[in-house]
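Retro notes (design track)

What went well: tokenization of the new backbones is finally stable.
What didn't: we kept losing track of which sequence belonged to which structure.
Fix going forward: every design gets posted as structure first, then sequence, in one message. First example under the new rule, 220 residues:
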């Protein structure tokens, strides 16, 4: 990984001031080389930073906008991270949602572009009013139908409830565009897990029933 060497914000007079709050985003060397190569084709490349901004949500993922921007145009509350030979500009509203993320190359070399691997996930229940009734299994099913599967549809996928055991562990599988995806387990543990456990406190664990390495599944 490329080490983030410095974080800065600008004061009211436009002067840079250090910000000591830990790294916001890291960039793997191959991705850094890619970005610097693209920037080299721009006019006055040394004056440009890479702006990374979260512009919205799609299901259990954030939507990102990456673009080169003049460093001189950075807002007073933007945070500027110096990563190798690249300045990364992060708007204040994006900082905490991005912290700990990594800008990386895609796993599939034929995919092209860059990917952001972010340990943070949006709250799918924010601003949503739910009316869940019945047993734990019935409420999980309602939550899947009302909130989770409409969100996963953005990825061409869906989640299916396999069952709930006596310890209130919920067993779920993914299908469609999520099935077999390398990110499917992360989707369950970080997105679906948070959604179900926030809405149904009795649930103690979400188990990915398609992960056979975790042991025998009582619902098979």
């Amino acid at each position: 990984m490329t080490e983030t060497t410095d974080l800065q914000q600008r004061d009211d007079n436009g002067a840079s001031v250090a910000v000591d709050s830990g790294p916001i985003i890291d960039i793997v060397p191959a991705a850094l080389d890619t970005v610097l190569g693209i920037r080299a084709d721009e006019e006055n490349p040394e004056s440009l930073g890479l702006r990374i901004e979260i512009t919205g949500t799609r299901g259990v993922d954030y939507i990102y906008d990456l673009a080169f921007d003049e460093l001189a145009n950075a807002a007073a509350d933007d945070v500027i991270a110096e990563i190798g030979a690249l300045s990364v500009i992060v708007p204040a509203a994006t900082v905490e949602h991005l912290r700990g993320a990594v800008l990386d190359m895609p796993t599939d070399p034929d995919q092209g572009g860059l990917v952001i691997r972010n340990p943070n996930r949006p709250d799918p229940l924010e601003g949503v009013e739910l009316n869940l009734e019945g047993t734990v299994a019935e409420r999980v099913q309602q939550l899947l139908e009302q909130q989770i599967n409409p969100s996963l549809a953005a990825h061409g996928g869906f989640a299916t409830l396999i069952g709930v055991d006596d310890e209130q562990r919920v067993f779920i599988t993914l299908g469609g565009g999520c099935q077999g995806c390398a990110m499917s387990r992360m989707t369950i543990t970080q997105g679906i897990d948070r959604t179900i456990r926030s809405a149904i406190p009795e649930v103690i664990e979400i188990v990915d029933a398609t992960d056979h390495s975790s042991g025998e599944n009582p619902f098979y």
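Added context from the reviewer: Residues 136-152 form the longest helix (17 residues).
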